[in-house]
Structure formats: C-alpha cells, structure tokens
Amino acid sequence: MKKLLDILEIIMIDLSTAMPVLLAAEGLTDYADYVMGMPRDETKTTCSIMFAPEITIDVSQRILPICFYLQLCRIDYETSLKYVELLKNFAKDYDSQKIGAVLVDNVSIDILPLDREMNTDVYILATYSEPLDSCDE
C-alpha cells in the first residue's frame, strides 16, 4: 500500500488537472483553491481532499476512505448540485489503481445548504479498496 501522503498527492494532482476542464464545460467557475485538509479561508470556494476522520486499517480489505470536501461560497443550492455531480463522477470514475486500489466500494454524499456564512458545504466520501484474495497470502 502506498504512503498516506503519496495517495493524497496523487489524487490532488489528478483532481486539480481534471476539474477546471470539467467545470468550464458546464459553465461553472473553477475553485479558487485546491487543498489537502480543510480549507484555510472560509471566503474562498475550495475543493479539498483528506482521509475520512476514521481510517480503519483492514489488512484483508485494504480500504482507503477518501473525503472530497467542497466549500462553495455564495453558491445557491441548485448550482451547488452541478458542482457535486462533477465531483461525484470524478470520485466514482477515478482510476483507483493509481493509488494502489482496484475497487470503488461506495460513494456517499452529504450536502449542507447555504449557512449563515453563505457557504454550501459538501462532503463526498469515496471508499477505495484492494481486497486480498486467497492467492495473496
């Protein structure tokens, strides 16, 4: 299995390369920042990645829970759904072999609509894995 930092760096490069093109094709503005971890400025529209808060190391399933987080500033719910759709598809269709996984086990989405700070927050959790089979031992 690759190192945790290497996994996020690989995904970040692919994400920051693919998303501007996908967003432009839909007439959406690119994110102001792409970061690892939580956004550092609550006034910027940001796409970030991190590991899910709890990483369970299952030696037989080799699960990698990757959290994609969107901080969408002053973007209404309907437009936010367009951003979510593109990121969901990126997570679902990602070539997980780049990070040492072979399966996308599941993708879940939490959307918190515009709050008092005028942000829509989106959490997309994608679980990638590389289950061992009986021949791997």
Describe the structure.
By secondary structure, this protein is an alpha+beta fold. The protein has a single domain, classed as 2-Layer Sandwich (STM4215-like), CATH 3.30.2000. Helix content is 28%, strand content 31%. It is built from two helices and five strands; from the N terminus they run αβββαββ.
In short, what is this structure?
This protein is of the alpha+beta class and 137 residues long. Helices cover 28% and strands 31% of the residues.
| Major sheet description | 5 strands, mixed
Mean pLDDT: 89
Going by CATH, the architecture would be 2-Layer Sandwich
Helix share bin: 25-40%
How is the quaternary structure best described?
single chain
Provide the CATH topology.
STM4215-like
**How many helices?**
2
Shape: elongated
Tell me, what is the CATH class? Alpha Beta
Calculate the terminal CA-CA distance, rounded to whole Å. 15 Å
H/E topology pattern: HEEEHEE
Which parts are unreliable, with pLDDT below 50 for 5 consecutive residues or more?
none
